[in-house]
Design goal:
Number of strands: 12
Shape: elongated
Largest sheet: 6 strands, parallel
CATH superfamily: TPP-binding domain
Number of helices: 12
Strand content: 15-25%
Bound molecules: zinc ion
CATH class: Alpha Beta
Mean pLDDT: 81
Radius of gyration: 21 Å
CATH topology: Rossmann fold
Length: about 325
Amino acid sequence: MAAVYNLLLSKSAFTQHVDARSEEPLASTHTGRMSVPSVPTAATDPVSPDRDQAALARLVAGGGVVVLTGAGLSTESGIPDYRGPDGTRRVTPMQYGEFVASGDARQRYWARSYIGWQRFTRAEPNRGHRAVAVLQRAGLAPAVVTQNVDGLHQAAGAVDVVELHGNLDQVVCLTCGDLTGRATLHERLAEANPGFVDLVLGVTPDGSRVTSQIRPDGDIVLDDTVARRFHLPRCLVCGADTLKPDVVFFGESVPKAKVERCFRLVDDATSLLVLGSSLAVMSGYRFVRRAARSGVPVAILTASASRGDPEATLRLHTPLGATLDRLLGDLGLS
Ligand SMILES: [Zn+2]
């Protein structure tokens, strides 16, 4: 049976680990430290995009901004979000428990991740990443926290980025803890799997038909019979077949020290600016709740509605790149 997986989301799927939809709704507290106009509901008082944009510029101009980013910021770089525009999940991510318990699951994961990595490494930062780096250099946004594992903030020039879910450029052995660079592992995967890319593309030595298919958006339909032909190298130190990208999978927790550091950043912030995260899971949403509880204004820029909208002082559901470009212009930072 063919399964639909998102290659690049064999990674960005990991960008969320706890689906906390059952969380109790939080009473909204919008007692901001700054004088930031709150946005009335569209039903009662439609607000012009210009007014929203001006409010955003005033908020950021105050400095002390903690930026929290999600998968939506990297979509312009060709890394698809794993949720569709309506917020529903488009792919079934690998669960940590399944990955740890099943050699077959690890084989399936690495088979599609091997294909996806080649595209992933070609991704470059987009204007959204560059805008964040500009705000940081201008001293307006000292802290950047991301749910993404693609390293594109750093590639754009941001520094001291807190990667809540780690970074795909490292691989860890779950048995002995040895760390390996992902590029190095990719070379080993390639050596162990000559012809696998052709197989995925449907080119088989014996002419048999396979259903694997790479889609233009980076998704892959990978027949399980193809995945089972994939050879996963073992750890070079201990020999176990338990290599895992050193990122937080669904079902794992963000390290506590990292969470605490982010809480302190939010506590000390003048405002929290969320870029491209639906906030559907607790790993990012908890920081919005923390800010709202302590009266730190929250601005959310997403292509569509986010879970944090009720806590937000300002919501812009607009294309991120263009909105951030305009923000830089408004701040004289273009
Ligand atoms: Zn090992």
